[in-house]
Structure formats: structure tokens, C-alpha cells
Amino acid sequence: MRYFVTFSYDGTRYHGWQIQPNGDSVQERLQGALSTLLRQEISVTGAGRTDAGVHARKMVAHFDLPSNGKFDGTALDTEQLAYKLNRLLPYDIAVQKVEQVGDEMHARFSAVARTYHYYIHTAKNPFRKAYSCELHYPLDFDRMNEAARMLLDYEDFGAFCKSGADVKTTICHVTEARWVQTAPAEWYFEITANRFLRNMVRAVVGTLIDVGRGRLSLDEFRKVIEGKQRTEAGESMPGNALFLEDVKY
Q: How confident is the model at residue 143 (pLDDT cuts 50, 70, 90)?
């Protein structure tokens, strides 16, 4: 039987979601905790990969148990498992629920949409530094939003894919892209798509900031997308300000 685990994490201490040979990862921690509690080797598959330092308010992963779904001869108590996971996992990983799903459900391939937020602030703030990118130059958010809307006109985002990334296609279906102001000097960029390329959101944000600073015109931004060359896009922004906000099935 298959189970979904819905959880959140602060990625500051981790080398991303995926298990790494030489660094601590969220996947390794969750997998280890499940294996300890269920007293068997458990493998988990996540809804996607987040890079080093990136956070998730909502991540989903699945794991399988033998077909009878029994643990110690009884049906798995998912509420109790979630409780025990939170007792065992470190402080920066929190499980919201464990639920049984159909065997055809897949944490990665069954997801129909993912939403990321990238946070920035434009005035010094000691309470935002850890989870938001501090910038100290004027930004034209109206122009940045005009550029963001252009993303919905395209499907190929090779311009924002990490160089050398092992991907079969750079096609993504973006359904929402906009800047949202939350306070006088605080904003976040929200983007929703069916899938994302490695480093894509941080590269998109870096390029939009070039538009906001006047380094790129709107026409030049469109040419960057159409050119599909990572070298023509803006810099990749720091990972600490990026959050996987939601995954929908």
C-alpha cells in the first residue's frame, strides 16, 4: 500500500531535498525516521527536488508498505505515525499528515501544479535576513510584473535552466507569475507551473530584477526567453529566500 507524507522544512542546514553522498539532506532524514519507526527499509519519493538552502512550506513524499498494508499485524495508524515522526525528526522538519492513497498515486508524477515564492526586502531588516533576499537598489515592480506576465506566453524555459542539467525537456507550463507586495519594503515573487527546471525560479527572479533595475528592457527580456540560452539570463539568486509553497494533485 502507498502512503503520502505531507511535511514542511527549513532547508538552511541541508544540502537540498535529495540524498547526497557528502552532505545531510531532507530525504535522508525522512527516510531514516520512517525506517526506524516501521522497522524496515523505507524508500521515499518526493514531489520534486529543492536545492541546498531552499525551504518548503508544503512538500509531499510517498512510500510503500507490503500489499496488505499491515504493520505489526494491524492496519497502519497514520495519525500515530505522523506524531512519532515529529518526535523523531529534527526541529527543522515538521510532518503535517500521513495518509493512505491509491497505488497509482505518485508524489512526483501525479502532481499537477507546484507553486514557489521568492522573498525580497529593500530595507535593512534583521528579522527578514535569513529567509528573504536583501536588496539595496530601486526596483520598478510595475515593469517587473509586465515582464513576469510574458512568462505565460512561452513553454520552453531553457534560458533559466542550470547549465549542464540532466533534463529531457525544458518545456514547462507556467500558469501564474507575479510580484506581490506584503509591506512597504517587502515583496515576494509567486510562480506556479506543472514542473520546474533545476535552478529555474532563482534564475527567473534574477532576470526580472535586471528588468526592474533597468538593465534589461521588456523586449530584451522576451529575447532572453526566446533565445533559450542560460548565459543570456540574469544571475541565480540566493537559495535562502526561496520556498516551495504548495503542491497540488
A: very high
Give the span between the Cα atoms of 116 and 93, in whole angstroms: 18
Return the beta strands (E) in the chain as ranges: 2-9, 45-46, 55-64, 70-71, 74-75, 93-101, 113-121, 133-134, 174-183, 186-193, 242-248
Unique residue bearing C-alpha cell 547526497: 20
Where b means 16+ CB within 10 Å and e means fewer, 123-149 reads eeeeebeeebbebeeebebebbbebbe
Q: What is the DSSP letter of 215?
A: S
DSSP secondary structure string for all residues of 117-142: EEEEESS--TTTTTTSEE--S---HH
Q: What's residue 66's pLDDT? A: 80
Q: Is the pLDDT of residue 72 over 70?
A: no
In 3D space, the residue among 168, 233, 165, 156 whose CA is nearest the CA of residue 202 turns out to be: 233
Convert the pLDDT of each residue in 193-218 to its tens digit: 999 999 999 999 999 999 999 999 99
CB-based contacts of 178, cutoff 8 Å, min separation 6: 145, 148, 149, 189, 190
**Which residues have a catalytic role annotated?**
51
CA-wise closest residue to 50 among 163, 168, 201: 201
CB-count exposure of residue 231 (10 Å: 0-12, 13-18, 19+): exposed
Q: What is the pTM of this model?
A: 0.94
Residue appearing with cell numbers 534589461: 216
H or E element: which one contains 200? helix 200-212
| The three grid cell numbers given for residue 116, joined into one nine-digit string | 514557489
Average pLDDT over residues 83-96: 98
Mean pLDDT of the chain: 95
Reduced to 3 states (helix: H, G, I; strand: E, B; else coil), residue 76 is: coil
CA distances from 202 to 115, 152, 190 (A): 13, 17, 11
